[in-house]
Amino acid sequence: MATVMIDAGHGGRDNGASFEGRTEKNDTLNLALAVGNILENNGVDVLYTRTTDVYQSPSEKADIANRSDAAYFISLHRNSSTEPETYSGAQTLVYADAGIPALFAENINRELEKVGFTNLGTEVRPNLAVLRRTNMPAALVEVGFINTEKDNRIFDLKFPEVAQAIADGILETIQGANLESSEVDRYSIELGTFMHHNNADGLAKNVQEDGYSCYIEPVSKCFRVCAGTFSDLGEAKEVQKQLFDKGYEARIIER
After folding, report:
1. Beta strands in 29-171 (DSSP E)
2. Which of 14, 41, 200, 201 has most Cβ atoms within 10 angstroms of its Cβ?
3. How confident is the model at residue 182 (pLDDT cuts 50, 70, 90)?
4. 20/107 same-domain check
5. Is the confidence at residue 221, as pLDDT, over 90?
């Protein structure tokens, strides 16, 4: 089965969100190790960006994933709000609400809802480095609000169930992707996602002027610029490298 890179959000001098002595970096590390253990017991190869309390910038976390043979990337976090007891629930963030990341979000959110979290759905966040810079399907899971008593109670009292829920969502997505890829493997290179078509069109024209086939596709309420369609992953990686060397934010996505 495919290799999954699990990122425990924050770490070291970066506590993440904090509330009454509780830190996000500790919650995410404990959860990452628990989720990874469940995945390994189900035959998944697991890698971690960190297994101790060390600092890594978001870009470093993405680079660690890109240097590995991981096929999927999951970053675990706790949410927070300006005022305590304002919001409650779990949410998954993605670079674009399409493909395998969208399935990760749907499956993980659904499983966390079964444990007791309010399902806040999926949010597109293309500005996050761990989603923008990773070369594999990636999702960032906000496992409840760290400054909301209800969410902390679920996190603490149902910790094994929370870890199981996230692992189940990951396993469901991988198994579904494996079934789909057994029929056909196709890859494309994503270059950017925009709210306005004019911005997407400008990028597409630049890519075409550089000699690459390029197209724009609607994704949710956004417009995604992609280059090429490949059946061979090695070929897709070669074109991705060429585009990256030309200064484009190029990442491979599965079709």
Report:
1. 45-48, 72-79, 90-94, 119-124, 138-145
2. 200
3. very low
4. yes
5. no
